[in-house]
Amino acid sequence: MSIRHAFSAIRHLSSAAKEITVREALNSALDEEMSADPKVFLMGEEVGEYQGAYKISKGLLEKFGPERVLDTPITEAGFAGIGVGAAYYGLRPVVEFMTFNFSMQAIDHIINSAAKSNYMSAGQISVPIVFRGPNGAAAGVGAQHSQCYASWYGSCPGLKVLSPYSSEDARGLLKAAIRDPDPVVFLENELLYGESFPVSAEVLDSSFCLPIGKAKIEREGKDVTITAYSKMVGYALKAAETLAKEGISAEVINLRSIRPLDRSTINTSVRKTNRLVTVEEGFPQHGVGAEICTSVIEESFGYLDAPVERIAGADVPMPYAANLERMAVPQVEDIVRAAKRTCYRSVPLAASA
C-alpha cells in the first residue's frame, strides 16, 4: 500500500468513527424505532415532561406527543399491566422502570401475563413488549435498590433478557428488542449511561440491529476465557490488560444476551483456552455464572485444564457504607486473581507473607 493510500485509509477510519454515550445510544434507538413504527410507544414514571429520570427519553415528548410518550403514576403494577394489554392488541410498548428493583411490583405481569401468554394461547397471542431501565448496583443506594435481575428473569421461559455494555450494544440491542415479537427484559446500567464508546458509521445507520442471543468476543486470547455482561465487561477488559503484562492472554466475552445464552461461543472459546472465569455483579447462588459453568462442564468438560472460577457479588444484601459496598461488588483485582488461579500462576500465601 502506498503512503497516499495509507493516509487515505486512516482519514476514512477517523471520519467514520464517532464517540457517543450509552445514554445517547438508547435515546437515538428509541427515537428511530418510534419514527419507523407508529405502534411503538413509551410509558413510565417521568419519561415525558421530565424527559426521563436519566434523560434517556430526552426530546421524545416534544417530538411524538403525550399519546406516545406517557407519564404514569408511581404504580409499576398498573402501567406494566396496561403495557401488556396494549401488546396483546398489537401495539409495541416500551415500559421504563426507574430502576429494575421496582419491577418487583410488576413481576406478575412480566412473567404470568407477558412471558407465558404465547405458549398458553398456542401461539395465538404474541406480546411484543420491552421492559427496560437500570439494573444492578449504582452507588450508595442501599440493599433495596442494588439488585441484579439477570438471573431472576433469565430463568423464565418466554422472556428474552438482554444486558448491554457499550453504546453499540445499547443501540443495536434496544432496536432488536423493540422489533422482537416476544417480551424482552432490557437490563441497562445506571453507571454506564454517561460512558462514551466509539461507534462506526454502520452502528449509527437507522437500519442497524444486533442479533438477540449472540455474544461478542471483545478481546481475543488463548490462555483463559472470561465471560461478563453489562458493567462487568469493562472490568474484565481491564483485568485482561493487567494479565497481559504478566504474560497471560485472556479472551473476554461480552454476553450481551442472558436469555437466550450464546453457549456455542462460550464453549468454543473454552475449548481453545481450556480455562474459564465467569464474572457477574449479581448474587452467586443460582446465578448467570453458575449456568455458564454448568454449560461448559456439560459440553466441554474434557477440555478444561483447571477448575472453573466464578466471580460474583457477595452473598449478602448490598451494604450502604461505601467501603463495604466496594467489598460486596466484584473488582478488577478479583478477576485478575481468579484468572491467575486457573493458570496456576497464584503466589502462595506463605510466599507472599
Automatic annotation (TrEMBL):
One of its GO terms (molecular function) is pyruvate dehydrogenase (acetyl-transferring) activity. The keyword Metal-binding applies. The keyword Mitochondrion applies. Keywords: Metal-binding, Mitochondrion, Oxidoreductase, Potassium, Pyruvate, Thiamine pyrophosphate, Transit peptide. Pfam families: Transket_pyr (PF02779), Transketolase_C (PF02780). Its EC number is 1.2.4.1. Tetramer of 2 alpha and 2 beta subunits. The pyruvate dehydrogenase complex catalyzes the overall conversion of pyruvate to acetyl-CoA and CO2. The pyruvate dehydrogenase complex catalyzes the overall conversion of pyruvate to acetyl-CoA and CO(2). It contains multiple copies of three enzymatic components: pyruvate dehydrogenase (E1), dihydrolipoamide acetyltransferase (E2) and lipoamide dehydrogenase (E3). This is Pyruvate dehydrogenase E1 component subunit beta. It comes from Glycine max. The gene is LOC100777306.
